[in-house]
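step 4 of 6: structure.
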Amino acid sequence: MNSLLSISALSVRFPLGRSSYSLLPWQADRYLYALSNLSLDIDAGETVGLIGQSGSGKSTLGRTIMGLESAYSGSVKLQGLELMGLSEKNYRSVRRKLAMIFQDPVASLSPRKTVGQLVAEPFCIHKSEYKNLQQEAVRLLKLVGLDENFLSAYPHQLSGGQARRVGIARALALDPAIIIADEPTAGLDVSVQGEIINLMNRLQEELNIAYLFITHNLSVARHVCDRLAILYAGSLVELGPTDKVLRAPAHPYTELLLRSMPHADPMEKREDMHLNQEEMSYGEPHACVFYQSCTYSSNLCRDEIPAYWAAGPGHASKCHFPLGQSVE
Amino acid sequence: MLANNLDIEGLSISFSNEGEELMALRQVSLSVPRHSIVGIVGESGCGKSTLISSIFRLPMENAIIKCGRIHVNGTDVLTLDEEEMNRLRGKEIAMIFQDPFTALNPVLTIGSQLIDIQYRQAISRKEKKQNVIAALQQVGIDRASDRFNQYPHQFSGGMLQRICIAMALLVKPTLLVADEPTTALDATTELQILALIREFHRSTGASVLLVSHHLSVIAELCDRVVVMYAGEIVEEGLSQDVFGAPLHPYTNLLMQCDPARIKEKARHLPSIPGTVSRVVKTSTECIFVHRCPQAVSRCSELVPETYSVEGRTVKCHLISNE
């Protein structure tokens, strides 16, 4: 067990609005399980794509690793060190190893600070030993392909792509081992999207950073990620090497996701799909999270949480009736 | 003969900014024929929003309409007074906004907003409510009569966008303008909303002008597509022609950048180097020359004309050689 980041049986739950009923002893508190029993290992220098719809718990996972949400049960270990239950003071030193790229490139930068101040901010917060902040800021900007003229610019003067680069420079400041990138290409134009992906790939090769790449854009994930983790309603339903998952999905939800992948070719229309709208699992799940929308579901799916089924080396699917089972 | 639902001719709009004139739209002409779906593709800063706002005559600070005409069903909207304009909005043209979370009033129930939007119809409140429930069911909202009394924050983004489409169903416009209707939504929800827009078009016969920076959304839905770059239309034609064999270098590059079109797994993704130039004076060169890999000397000397090739138009010097 030498993974860089090791998440095991992690559950995160949020209390649901209490009504006056919840004061009654027989009315138990209701919780929404944003993540249930999730296990995932990330190795140094690899990119794991975390795929799922909004509300599936992608961002909650990122935030829990960063210590911004507390776990209900389970553990998250970074280089062998247990993070869950750490005090805020101790977490601070851990966050040097963890960095985050936030979803909205412009909103994640303070509008009152210059790019130079923004990029040097992590050093100030962590009372870093670097003496020459200016020099460090220039080094970081160079790393992400911006020249020093940007030092005195304010966020509103930046384009979306430039703001994203500044966000990446800030994430890189303290030499993190892993970067959690929350939808790093959302809101960017197609022509700029490629630049940011290429930058992230280059930095990974130079600095051996691992990425947890949170996205709902499968077309981007396909090119960037070594492995894909498919999340549905807080459960990890499929995990495996990117090309395996995309070529031979073993979970019905993954199959559905793939069918909804956009084609730029007008001749290839996507199929119209019917997915049940709101599926919030209240309380601890006791069934397959996908059974209501699944075309293959049976009574077993409603009564029992499926176990992981090995679809191949490093490829697992949480389904009672995994696809391709009869073939293998 | 009935006029097109929308005809824009030679529209130029500038913004005055600290003594500088920013030419946001230059000589834009496009039309939306009856019962058609037309898409506008373009990246941020290409003038999509300016174009739409001008159709609805939404207030734009500092904007100066230099020249051009906008006809909605034969009526020139630029000559109407505010009262006449209000009569047009909602009745003949309606809009679906990009962000469904801010499109609805957060302090009113969706039911009351959906009733209010029928203010033109001389029917009782009870009948209006029945219309609302029918429209909500039509856009796939379960338990419509229960959800009637709920507030916008109690719905997900996809549901809110459905409600906005239900609003369009209630006013039955002849032209629906959808501004990036799926940008804020997931891929699976995106498909459902696109299907709903298509269904709306089929059932009411209304035309749709769909604006998106997402090529596949346009390809999915539209009969014709208009490609905009930095305030100009660079290519226009049938979807299958433009997407099948783009003629303008910009369209071509844009399509190469779309990760969905790259079939093999690639570590290095293509991008278009450079940035969109701000146009402050009448240009003497092609607008795309600085980013164009196929540029020749003529491109920086002369503004290209708009050439017609087999039912499509392309604004590029390279076409004139052929």
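step 5 of 6: annotate
 - The first strand of chain B starts at residue 6 and ends at 17.
 - The CA atoms of residues 23 and 282 of chain B lie 8 Å apart.
step 6 of 6: archive
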